[in-house]
Design a protein that fits this description.
With 267 residues, the chain is of the alpha/beta class. The chain contains nine helices and eight strands. Helix 7 links the parallel strand 7 and strand 8.
Length: 267
């Protein structure tokens, strides 16, 4: 297990953001290469995947669909609505079967895609995925949250609280104190809590890589082991001194594991 903390900032990266009729996504890499789809979580954003885009762009076609969680959107604020949004992106770009990499709610959504649209999935990488258990503020934050309350919850995401930067705290604070945004987040979070994946996980037969922070307090180690037991073709890796977002907190070790998994997948 990795015990050395990496630098907090990733190298700068240039990416393209594309707006289509009904979806948006960021892209980096080689268009003709195997597609990798990175799916962020409930309070996530493109910034969560900066280092991963950097690590994969030389070898793969890397896409980050920008989930319409907060903005005004005709997309239903539910797991079904977001999963269909992801499939609208996938179909619209006419992609071959892809590896879906999901953090937190993004892992949950990737599993739903794998269950309902197996032709779209070549492999799965789950990190801190919801679907079995999650301890988060998404379904319980007060109607009006103080900055200190939000700061505490954001710090709870990481092993090293330095990752809870003032900019990240302000971003979450703005979301939870905007009525429209907060309502959408609440609806999605409550739907995710009701959507238990355990009953059908044994039917997900694609190769799956579980990369978990050993110090994840939101989806603890026991959740990782539960996913490992229920998924037929899974491997499990832990990263020490790491919380709920390994791709942000220890990108070097996360990408070592991820790249080894990708290179082992059959073409």
């Amino acid at each position: 297990m990795e015990t050395t903390m990496p630098p907090l900032s990733a190298p700068p990266l240039t990416w393209e953001i594309t707006q289509r009729d009904g979806y948006r996504y960021a892209f980096a890499g080689r268009v003709e290469a195997q597609p990798i789809i990175l799916v962020h979580g409930l309070f996530g954003a493109l910034s969560n995947w900066h280092a991963t885009l950097q690590a994969l762009a030389e070898r793969y076609a890397v896409y980050v669909p920008l989930l319409p969680i907060y903005e005004r959107s005709p997309v239903e604020p539910s797991l079904a609505g977001l999963a269909e949004y992801l499939m609208a992106f996938y179909r619209g770009e006419a992609l071959p079967p892809a590896v879906w990499v999901g953090n937190s709610l993004g892992g949950h959504l990737s599993l739903l895609v794998a269950r309902n649209h197996p032709h779209a999935v070549r492999g799965l990488v789950l990190t801190g995925s919801s679907g079995l258990f999650e301890d988060t503020m998404g379904s319980s934050f007060p109607r009006r949250s103080s900055r200190e309350y939000v700061a505490e919850k954001v710090r709870y995401t990481f092993y090293d609280p330095r990752h809870a930067t003032p900019a990240l705290i302000e971003e979450v604070y703005t979301i939870v104190n905007d009525n429209y945004k907060a309502l959408r987040v609440l609806k999605i979070a409550r739907d995710a809590q009701r959507s238990f994946v355990g009953e059908w996980l044994p039917k997900i037969t694609v190769p799956t890589c579980l990369i978990w922070g050993l110090n994840d307090t939101i989806t603890p180690v026991a959740v990782a082991y539960a996913f490992y037991r229920l998924l037929p073709d899974a491997e499990l890796h832990f990263i020490d001194m790491c919380g709920h977002a390994p791709m942000m907190e220890n990108p070097q070790r996360f990408h070592e594991i991820l790249l080894r998994f990708l290179l082992r997948l059959p073409v």
